[in-house]
Description:
alpha+beta, 6-stranded antiparallel beta sheet, two-stranded antiparallel sheet, globular
Amino acid sequence: MASAAGSASRVLRVAGPVLLPAIAYGAYKGNAVGAIESFFTGPGRTSRIVALLVVLVNWKSMPFAWTVRVWGAMISHLFVRKYHTYTPDKLFQPVVSESHVSLLEVDYNIHKSNSTYFADLDVSRSHLVSHLFARGCQALANNPTTKLVMNPSDVSQPAKGRFGVMLGAVHCSFKRELQPFQRYETWSRLLSWDRKWMYIVTHFVETGTAKKGQGKSKGWEKRIFATAVSKYVFKIGRLTVHPAVLIEASGLLPERPGGWITVDSGLATPAELVNSDGSSEAETESVWDWRRTEQERRKGHEYAEHFAMLDGLHEHFDAGERITLGRFALG
């Protein structure tokens, strides 16, 4: 019954916008029901129904669908839903989004085109950041009042400018192909952060994998289609905001001696994470304190720092020294 309700909800979510013009026209003419009935029974109904089916099957690849998916996620979490009251132990937990492979996403190998993964990543990241850091985003958007970030030129005044979130880079590693119409889930979570960047990891996995109780020892890796790492930078005007400001304003950082924003990278030394008896704070206490948060961040940073090093490839562009093989249309 729940499955049927879920299917009906998806149909209404997709068919609703498709039929909206017909409904609006019918309302304008004073006969919305008649307009919808004419759509399915009037002259030319076959072509209209076929066109509707094509749109329903490929709705996520239709014009402006990406905009609706991304902005829909942000509006839903930032303006419609109530802000969460998560505690710091939820900082590295994932959000899950479900999707499917539409026909317009299929390439000549008859599986989901590699390029289409990046549109799904946009949506998945939008859900994560807009949901998990909604309180911080709202506070930074109102920085003149909250004064979370001060003007470096005049520390008595808050930084001025619009709050923005910008994508710096994405890397995606493909493991298994996705077939036409196959359903899948994206699991996005915070990986790490440094003085400038917030790193997010996203896994494309088989739908319902977590419900099947599959652990790594039972073939979990066989259910992963791809893994991606993205990095975000947060701005107020042209001023870069330390990611810890956003995270702390969202109520997701435990108190740390000296604070989370330091003059260095902010990464604690191994000695700071170990108690006098040689054990870590995470091993001796059940409470999620700053050491546990820092340990999780350090684990993710082992991957993030290698990803960040790829920025150095910009310096390897040497158009003045190499002879081009030819110039061809990009298409």
